[in-house]
Write a structure and sequence with these properties.
Subcellular location: Membrane
CATH architecture of the largest domain: Up-down Bundle
CATH superfamily of the largest domain: MFS general substrate transporter like domains
Organism: Rhizobium laguerreae
Number of domains: 2
Structural class: mainly alpha
Distance between the termini: 16 Å
Main location: membrane
Strand content: under 5%
CATH topology of the largest domain: Growth Hormone, Chain: A
Helix content: over 70%
Protein name: MFS family permease
Number of helices: 15
InterPro entries: MFS, MFS_dom, MFS_trans_sf, Proton-linked_MCT, Sugar_transporter_CS
Shape: globular
């Protein structure tokens, strides 16, 4: 159920968090693919090994995510994000000065742990803690801003790396996390603390669950299953976009797909911001899930058609863009604001663990079954995600009518 409130989203907090998310994703995630070849050369590794190290770090970061989600609930997302910015800066410096492979991997693990503390999961929790009743809208606005992280940081990283070593680029990014992100997160943390003191820890402002206790566990399992399957397919496709396109006779289109994917993500968030107010978060999750197998079916059915590949890129980008929103808003709508950080940590853990394994799994399938069959399996898995969210809608129907009566006091 969409939460209706006359309260206004915290514009200053959203804008500030948008900046830290762009820096957080740009410096800790998007820059790696550009700097990885030189990292591998300096360490004496192949490119496969350097990305294998990243997958291992993602896996460990994912396993640590539930604990970090608990910390967010206990200490406040602002404090955790402030600490995360300091850890991110330290991990980037440690990576730049790593004397060997073991130290480099340890620093990479530090980067992935810091990512859990400063990226979407923590940022969504902070918006929930600032103003729970308008958090769904706030999350939508934030993802719209943060969607430009790759658009901004890929060219920035490339330009810097043209004149500097990857170590020097990482030192600059460490400074950005320390000088820009840390003060912003500290300021937001103080704001949340002051608001909670004024409102008695925000008890009157919390968002109530839309599900009765007996349905929360099965709904949570279904939700995590849907998110995990979507993460698996998204991660596998993004990593293997070039070999997939080449095998389908569309090798040159991989670059074009990449240029359409990012704007399509932002477009889906903009459309949702303007027209999505009347949609429940469960329905938004279903629409998002449907777009993924639809994109795959278009690609399989039309290859090697160029218009088909372009349509695939747009539909795939639309689905991926909505996924970032639903990942933050659906748990809030179903389970309320209490314990939101812990739930986000659990969801993030499953998503990261699955994402870390997905590229290897798709590579294995393509090597043994061919690209068309592998994409068909991916389409089938994403269809199961659709079924999971449809099942959640079925679970919520008995309680939809009573909740509609419960919310008018918000006006």
């Amino acid at each position: 159920m969409t939460i209706v409130s006359t309260e206004r989203p915290p514009v200053a907090a959203i804008a500030a968090l948008g900046l830290t998310q762009i820096i957080g994703y740009g410096s800790l995630y998007y820059s790696f693919s550009i700097l990885a070849p030189d990292m591998a050369r300096d360490l004496g590794w192949s490119s496969e090994w350097i990305f294998g190290a990243l997958s291992a770090a993602l896996l460990i970061g994912g396993l640590a995510a539930p604990l970090m989600g608990t910390w967010i609930d206990r200490f406040g997302a602002g404090r955790i994000m402030t600490s995360g910015s300091a850890i991110a800066a330290a991990a980037l410096v440690a990576c730049a000065f790593a004397p060997g492979k073991i130290a480099f991997v340890a620093a990479l693990i530090g980067i992935e742990i810091a990512s859990n503390l400063v990226q979407y999961g923590a940022a969504f929790a902070l918006l929930v803690q600032i103003r729970p009743q308008v958090a769904q809208r706030s999350i939508t606005y934030l993802t719209l801003i943060a969607g430009f992280a790759s658009t901004i940081f890929w060219p920035i990283t490339t330009a810097l790396h043209a004149h500097l070593s990857w170590q020097e680029v990482y030192l600059i990014f460490a400074a950005l996390n320390l000088v820009v992100c840390l003060p912003i997160h500290a300021w937001l943390s103080r704001g949340v603390s002051q608001t909670r003191r004024r409102t008695g820890e925000g008890v009157a402002k919390r968002v109530e669950p839309s599900l009765p206790p007996s349905l929360r566990r099965p709904a949570f399992i279904l939700m995590v299953t849907g998110f995990a399957l979507e993460s698996f397919v998204n991660s596998a496709l993004l990593v293997h976009m070039v070999p997939v396109m080449s095998a389908l006779g569309l090798g040159a289109m991989a670059v074009v797909v990449g240029t359409l994917f990012g704007p399509s993500q932002v477009l889906s968030r903009l459309i949702n911001m303007v027209f999505g107010e009347s949609l429940s978060q469960v329905m938004l999750a279903i629409i998002c899930a449907i777009l993924l197998p639809t994109a795959l079916v278009i690609l399989i059915a039309t290859a090697p058609s160029v218009p088909g590949a372009l349509l695939f890129a747009v539909v795939f980008g639309l689905g991926s863009g909505l996924n970032s929103i639903v990942y933050g808003t659906l748990p809030l709508a179903l389970f309320g604001s209490d314990g939101y950080g812990r739930r986000q940590g659990q969801i993030m853990s499953v998503r990261l663990v699955v994402s870390s394994m997905a590229p290897f799994a798709l590579a294995f399938l393509m090597g043994n079954m061919g690209v068309s069959w592998s994409l068909s399996i991916a389409a089938l898995l994403s269809t199961v995600a659709v079924a999971a969210f449809l099942a959640i809608m079925w679970l919520t129907r008995p309680v939809a009518r009573p909740e509609t009566v419960a919310n008018p006091r918000e006006a």
